[in-house]
Request: fold
Amino acid sequence: MDLTNRNENSRYLTFALCKGRLATKTMQLLEQIGITCEEMKDPSSRKLIFVNEELKLKFFLAKGPDVPTYVEYGAADIGVVGRDVILEEQRKLYEVLDLGFGACRMCVCGPKEAKPLLESQELIRVATKYPAIAKDYFYNRKNQTVEIIKLNGSIELAPIVGLSEVIVDIVETGSTLRENGLEVLEEVCPLSARVVVNQVSMRMENERITELLKRLNEVTEKNGR
Ligand code: PRP
Reply:
């Protein structure tokens, strides 16, 4: 069987990728299994959609939180996106593979003085870019009623300027926390880049997609996921 099991009549398989570092890493991984897209390598290009005619593949670049939307509606068959986005967006799709890269943690963070507030069932304010994840964590896992405040970035500011007692945010190296006098108070879950698949595509293009996932899994294991 060739790489994507295509034949004369195959339709295009479409990938939705997150603009930026995640897309670059994904293309590097795909290259290891013989899937390339030269057009995408031009850093000055503003193009959003790329085609590999030979393999009958398309790739487009979207904003991270929109990737699960494209995949749920079938505008893309396959998506690569962080688990944070998958958990937050709660779309109907299959999460099929952990690609290992982009590893980081979703955490409750704040000044260390805020730690007792997490153990006392107090009504505290939680600032976050991820209200669904924060709500699930506090309401369902900790049974603590909190006020969730949605922000769009630089979340670490919130406890420093008095907007909230704690934050729920991504921690990778921990530098942003350290440089702002904050620390990890609790861990919510580990995160990394995941492959997601449209539910209908998984049935209709099962052979091609399964073969692709198998190859991606092999190379990810070889890279030491
Ligand atoms: C993310 C996250 C933290 C930071 C964590 O922010 O929200 O602020 O990275 O990384 P570190 O542990 O390695 O310091 P991002 O840079 O994506 O920008 P944002 O604040 O606009 O969300």
